[in-house]
Amino acid sequence: MKVHLIADSAADLPRSFFEANDIGFIPLRVSLDDKEYEDAVTIQANEVLEAMKNGKAPKTSQASPQTIKNTFLQFAETGEPALYVAFSSGLSGTYQTAVMMANEVKEEYPDFDLRIIDSKCASLGYGLAVRYAQELCVDGNTIQEIETSVKDFCAHLEHIFTVDDLTYLARGGRISKASAFVGGLLNIKPLLHMEDGKLIPLEKIRGKKKLLKRIIEVMAERGDNWSGQTVGISYADNEDTALEMKQLIEDAFHPKEIIMHTIGSAVGSHSGPGTLAIFFSSKS
Question: Which of 64, 150, 174, 182 is most exposed by smallest CB count within 10 Å?
Answer without folding.
Answer: 182
